[in-house]
Amino acid sequence: MTTKRNRRDVSRRSVLASSAGVAGFALAGCVGEDPQNGEDEGVGGDEAGGEGGDDAEHSAAASFFMPFDVTRQVAGDSVDVEDLVPVGEHGHDWDPDPGTVEGIENADMFVYTREFTSWQDDAADSLGDDEDTIVVDLSEGIEFIDSPAETNDEHFWMNPRSMQEGVPNVVDALSELDPDNAESYEENGEAFVEELEALHEEFVGLVDDAERNEVVVGSHDSYQWWWDEYDFEIHSPVGTSPDDEASAADIEEVEALIAEHDIEYILYDMYEPRTLAESLAEETDTEILPLSPIEGTTEEQLEDGWGYLEHQREINLDSLARALDAR
């Protein structure tokens, strides 16, 4: 069951994450040839998202949707950016296999965030001594908060202010990879940071207008960084990982909280099964609303050009406005 934590103290940084790569990198379950014909596959899983100009000279592989979008926002058309996680998959649940990833070592950059999944950490560590692939930890320099179920909650990107801290990591890496376009990367990074600051102000305005101060999440809890920054309570019977399960005692505690505060909506992760959220809603006579942890995307969202900002504004702010009674 969720309890409030101490606020973090995050310092600004713009230091490049360690450059690396691996010649002949062969991460088990992550790199391989097509078992059908032995030919190399493209970077990314089935229906993985891609962005960049057709004539881009450089390539970047992103470990899931969030770092994919940050990288493409900064890179523009100068770099071919691939999301390794297939469209429709949850970045926290997905594991690569030899049939979905040609080889991260063939990309000029690998962008990830440490402690999100073990395969990403293993890939980054395996690339650590190479000179051909720049490894970028988007979370480098960001101090993780402690959440109820996890020390060092890695979901920093849910807070637009903390997200701003990660953008220079990508700017610096792209500038090292492609010095001729360094000025463009810097400008794109600054523009994205301005958008993130505007998004932060939208969160502040929403919370200021809210009649409520508590929300309930009926899925894995990726959202504690909102509580930390904006000081509204987020309660969930589930931990920060999709693998966590709710106990009967925690479910009863959440149901009591719903009754105590006359909560009308149960929020849920749109990329996970709704089973728990629907069960809570049925037991408490409430409705369910989606949230996006920005760990995946859908075909429709990809076709519409949705990125981090759209997930926050069109899904998260909209649902929070209803759940917090801010409209």
TrEMBL record:
Keywords: Coiled coil, Signal, Transport. InterPro entries: Bact_metal-bind_prot9, ZnuA-like. Residues 29-57 are annotated as: Disordered. Residues 36-54 have a biased composition (Acidic residues). Residues 182-213 form a coiled coil. Belongs to the bacterial solute-binding protein 9 family. This is Metal ABC transporter substrate-binding protein. It comes from Halalkalicoccus tibetensis.
